[in-house]
Amino acid sequence: MSSIAPTPRLGLPATIIGLAVGLVLTAIGVIFGFIQGVAVQTIILSAIATLGAFVWAWRYVLGQFIGDGPPPADGEIGEGRKVWLQFRPALYGLIAILLVFLALSLTIESFFNIWNVISLLILLTIIVLTRTLGRQFQENRSGFIGVMVLSGLFSIGAMNIEGFASANNIKSMLLFASFLGIASIGQTLVALLGGLDLSIPFIIGAANVGLLYLIGLGVPPWLATILVLLIGATLGVINGFLSYRLQGQALIVTLGTGFAISGGVQIITSIGSAYSGNVFGTVPPWLSNLAAMNGSTFGLPVPPVIVIWLAIVVILIVGMRYTVYGRYLYALGVNRTSAKRIMISEPVYWVMMYAVSGFFAAMAGSLLLGWSGGGFIGVGDPYLFLTLAAVVVGGTSLLGGQGGYGFTVIGVLVLQVLSSFLIGIGLEFEWQQFIFGLLILPMVALYARSPHIRTQI
Amino acid sequence: MNMVAAPVVAEADPAQGGRGNPFLLVPITLFFLLLGLAVLRSPNLMSSNGIGSAIIVATPLILATYALMAVVIAGRGTVDLSVGPLIGFLNVTLIQLHGAGIIENPFAVFGYAIFVGALYQFVFALIVIYVRVQPIIVSLSGYLALTGMNLVILPRPGGVAPQWMSEWGLGTSIFSPVLLILVLATAAWLLFTRSAFYTHLRLMGSDERAAYTSGVPIYVVRIGAHLISGAFSGLAAITFTALISSGDPSQGTTYTLIAVTALVLGGASLAGGRGGVFGSFLGASNLYLITFVLATFNFGAVQSFVTNLAYGTILVVSLLLTLIIPFIQRHIRNFSPVLYFVALSVVALGVILHATNDYQDRAPATEVTQPAALGPIAPEALYVAPLEVASPTPDEAALREAAAPIVLSLLLLVVLAVFVRIAISQADRRSIAPAVIFVVAALVLLGAYLISHDGAPADTPAVEEGQ
Questions:
Q1: pLDDT given for residue B256 in this prediction
Q2: C or N: which end of chain B has fewer Cβ atoms within 10 Å?
Q3: Do A392 and B264 make contact, defined as CB atoms within 8 angstroms?
Q4: Mean pLDDT for chain B?
Q5: Domain membership of residue B420 as a residue range
Q6: B383 CB burial (10 A radius; 0-12, 13-18, 19+)
C-alpha cells in the first residue's frame, strides 16, 4: 500500500453514518457477549476494538474514494448521497448479507453463536476490502480477491469445524487440490489462447482405465505409464489441430473427440473381457504411494503428488513469466493478428497447448488410478466443468490473454477449501454443487465484468 | 475468416430467412444416409408403431435443441450449458408437485413448465445484460446450481407422472399429442422468423455492435430470445416427462451434451447469428437415428461405448465437412437446401419402398403382416385410418384398387407441375438447379412407375410426407 493523500477529510454526514453503524455493530457485539456469558472485561475490550476498527475502516474506505475523485467542491449532491451512488452495489450486497444472516439466526436455533458472528464479520471485511483495496491492484485483482476469499474461508472453517485446520485435513485438501490442479493445467493454457478443452474428463477416464488395462496385459507398469502419457499427448495434438482448423468451435470439437476417446478406449478394453467396462488388475505399489493419502516423499509423510504438483506450479509460473514461450503464449492470446506479424506461429502454439493439456489429463488419470486402486471410466466426470470453474474462479479470462496458472492455483484452492468446508458442516454433494454454482457468478462478477457495449464501438 | 464471412453470404436473401443456408448440406446428407441405413436395417421403422415411438423418443431432444438454438442465435457465445439441468429441474418439480397433488390438469402443467422455464431464462438474460458476465459463465453457474438442486428435490429416479401424460409415452401411433407439440413448436418458430424481431435477433447475433449502432434495442431482443428459449425448455420438459413417465434428476448432463451436439450437427454456429429450426430438427433426428441404427447392430455389452464413439466421430467429421462449404459455395452459388432435401428424399423414398416391400413377398405378404401390426391402435383408428392399410371389405378393396391409379397420377401431376415450374424459372440462371430438377423429376417418374408396376400400396409415400 502506497501512502495516499495526508489525512482524508470526511464530510459530516459520512462521519455520522460511520459512527452510527460502528456503534450499532459494537452494541450487537456487546449483547452477544452477554448472551454468551463472556467475561465483562473481554466484552468491553472487544467492544472498544470493534468500534475503533470500524471507524478506522470507514475513514479508510471513504478516504480511498476521496483520494480518487475530484475534490468535493461541487455542493450539489450531499456527501452521503455521493457515497451511496459510488458504493451502491457493494452496499446492496452488505444489506443482503445482513438480512440473510438475520433470517438464518431467527429461523435456526443454534445458528446464533459467537463464531457465526465472527464469520459474518470476516465475510463483510472481505467484501469491503475487495471493493477498496482491489482498486489498487488493477492487474492482479482477481488473484487478490481469490486470496482474500481463500483466507476468509479457511479462517471461518477453522473456527466452525472441529479438525478443519488439522494437519491431516490440510494434507487431504492438498491431495485433492493437486488432482484438480493437474487436470486444470491444460484448461488454463488453452483458455489463455482463447480456446476450451472439454475432452479433459474423458481423457482422464480413458487414461485411468487404459493404464490398468495395459498393466493387466503384462506391460511393465513404468512403460505402461509412459505409454499412456504419450497417448494422452497425442490425443491432445489431434484436439489442437482440429480446434485450430475449426476456430471458435473448440467447445464442441473437444467434446466430440472426448466422446470418441472414451468410447474407443472402452471398446478396446472390453474386447475379450467378460465384464465389459470393468477392468481388473493390480496397481503397482509405487503408483499407489504416489497418490495415496499415506504416501511418503523421501521419508517425509507427504503424498508425492502434492510435491509433484508444487514443482509443476513453480515451473509453469516461472516459465510463463520469463521464457519466450510463455510470453508468446500471452501475445497470441491478447492479439493474434499482431502476434502473427512478429512471426509467432499460431498453429504450433495451439497444437502445443492442447498436447500439454492431453498430457496432464492423462497424468491426472494415472494418478487417480494410484489413488483409487481400481479403473473406472467415470472417474473424470466431475472434472468436466470443475476444471472450467477453477480457471474461471481463479480469474483467467476465457477469451484469452489474461490470467495465468498462478490464478488457477488460487481458484483450485478456493474450490477445494470450499468443498471441504461444506462437507465439514455436513452438506451433501448436491448442496455443494448448488453452492458452487451460486458462488461462481458473484466471484466472477467481482472482477471480470465486460465493459458496456457503448464503450466497445 | 471463411467461417466469419459465410453467414453474411447466407444473409444475402433476407426473404428466405435461414433457409438459404449452405450449412444445411451436411445435416441433410447425413439425415438421409442414416434414414436409408435405418430403414434397410430395420424396415419396422416405417410402420405406424415405429414412427410413433421414434417421435416420442426424439421430440424432447429436438425441443431441447430448439431451446438451445434460440439463445445461441443471440450471439456472444451464449451456449446455454444449463439447458439440460433446466429440463431436469422442470421434470422433477413437475413430478413432485403432481405427487403433492398441487398440479393436476394439463393447463396447469403446461403453464407451470413454460412459465418457470421462461422465468429462469429471464433471470439469465438480466444477469448477462446488467452484470455483464460472459454468458457461458452464467450458464456454467446455472448448470452446477440446477444439477445440485435437482438431486435435492428428487434424490433418485422415481415418482409418477400424471395419468393423462403417461399415456402419451406409449408411442403406438404417429398422431400422438407429442407430435402435436412438436409441430406447434416448429410452426411457432417458423412464424416467428417472419417477424422483424427475428431479423433483429440475427443481426445482434452476427454483430452486436452493428446492431447497437443501427438502433436495434439489443436488451429487449436478448430478453426475447431467452424467453423463447425458456418456453421451448418447458415444452421439452413436458415431452421428456411424458417419455419416461416419472422423474429423473440425473438426465440433465446428457441432455446438455446431446443438445449442443445436435445443434452443431444441424449446421448452427455456436458463435451466433446462424441457425434455424430446420437444421436443429435434422441435427437432433440425426442423433436419434445414429442411436437407432447402432441399436440394430447387436454389439452386446459394448453397445453404449460404440454409440459414444460414433457420436464423437460423426460430430468431428461433420464439423470438418463444414470447412469445405466455402469451396462448394464458390461453385454452386445458389444452393437451395429445400431442393436438395427434396432430391434426397426421393432417393430415400425409393430405399424405403425397396426395404418395406421387396423383402417381404410382394403384395400378399404386406396385406398379411401389416394388419397384424395394427392391433393395439384400435382406439385411435379414427385418426390413423386414412394412412393405414386397414382390413378392407372386398368391395372397398376393389374401390381402392380402382382409385389408386387416379390418386397416384394426380399426385404425380402436381409434383411434376411444381418441378417444371421451378425448372423453367431457373432455366436462365447459370446453375446446377435445372439439372437437379430434371434428375429429380426423372426419379419421381421412375418411382411412380415402379409403384404402379408392383401394385404396392399407395400409403407409404403418404407416411413419408406425414413426418
A1: 85
A2: N
A3: no
A4: 76
A5: 337-466
A6: middle
- The answer to whether position B18 is within a domain reads no
Pair (B357, B286) in one structural domain: no
Tell me: do B313 and B458 sit in the same domain: no
Q: Decide if B16 is inside a domain.
A: no
Fold of A167-447: ABC transporter involved in vitamin B12 uptake, BtuC (1.10.3470)
pLDDT tens sequence across A291-324: 777 766 776 777 888 888 999 999 999 998 889 8
B149/chain A closest Cα distance in angstroms: 6
Is the distance from CB of A187 to CB of A391 less than 8 angstroms?
yes
CA distances A69 to A66, A82, A83, A86, Å, are 5, 11, 11, 10
Say whether both B370 and B266 belong to one domain.
Answer: no
Q: Which residue has the cell 423463447?
A: B228
CA distance B12 to chain A (A): 23
**CA of A173, closest CA in chain B: separation in Å?**
21
- Provide the shortest C-alpha distance from residue B127 to chain A (in Å): 9
- Comparing alpha-carbon positions, the chain B residue that sits nearest to A255 is B312
Task: Report the alpha-carbon distance of residue A419 to residue A349 in Å, rounded.
Answer: 34
**Higher pLDDT pick, A353 / B338:** A353
The residue written with cell numbers 407441375 in the block is B417
Which residue, B331, B350, B369, sits at the end of a domain?
A: B331
Q: Exposed, middle or buried by CB within 10 Å (0-12, 13-18, 19+), for A241?
A: middle
Residue B144 at interface with chain A, using a CB cutoff of 8 Å: yes
- d(CA B118, CA A381) in angstroms, rounded, equals 29
B462 and B423 share one domain = yes
Residue B14 lies in a domain: no
Please report whether residue B19 resides in a domain. no
Is residue B246 within 8 A of residue B305, CB to CB? The reply is no
Q: What is the pLDDT of residues B116-165, one digit of tens each?
A: 999 999 999 999 888 888 888 888 889 888 988 888 888 888 888 887 77
Q: Is the pLDDT of residue B318 over 90?
A: no
Q: Return the domain boundaries, chain A.
A: 12-70+79-136, 167-447
Cα separation, B325 vs B274, in Å, equals: 15
Q: What is the ipTM of this complex?
A: 0.71
Tell me if A385 and B81 make a contact (CB, 8 A cut-off): yes
Helix, strand or coil for residue B245?
coil
| Residue among B131, B209, B312 minimizing CB distance to A453 | B209
Residue B170: DSSP 8-state: G
Q: What is the dihedral of CA A313, A318, A324, A327, to 10 degrees?
A: 80
Inter-chain residue contact A263 with B142, CB threshold 8 Å: no
Q: What is the CATH number of the domain that holds B108?
A: 1.10.3470
- B204 & B344 share domain: no
- Tell me, yes or no, whether B396 and B285 share the same domain: no
- Name the region of B80 (left: φ>0; alpha: ψ -120 to 50; beta: rest): beta
| For the ranges A241-245, A246-250, B50-54, B342-346, the one whose mean pLDDT is highest | A241-245
Selected for mutation to probe chain B from A269, A434, A450, A452 (highest B CB count within 10 Å) is A434
Is the predicted pLDDT of residue B384 greater than 80, yes or no? no
Cβ neighbours of B269 in A, within 8 Å: 248
pLDDT digits (tens, 9 = 90+) for B254-303: 788 888 888 888 888 777 777 788 888 999 998 888 888 888 877 766 77
Residue B15's pLDDT is 36
Q: Are both B315 and B361 inside the same structural domain?
A: no
> Which residues contact residue B224 at a Cβ distance below 8 angstroms, ignoring those fewer than 6 apart?
B197, B201
- Based on the structure, what is the number of domains in chain B? 2
Report how far apart, in Å, the C-alpha atoms of A142 and of each of A402, A440, A443 are.
Answer: 11, 13, 9
* pLDDT for residue A173 is more than 50: yes
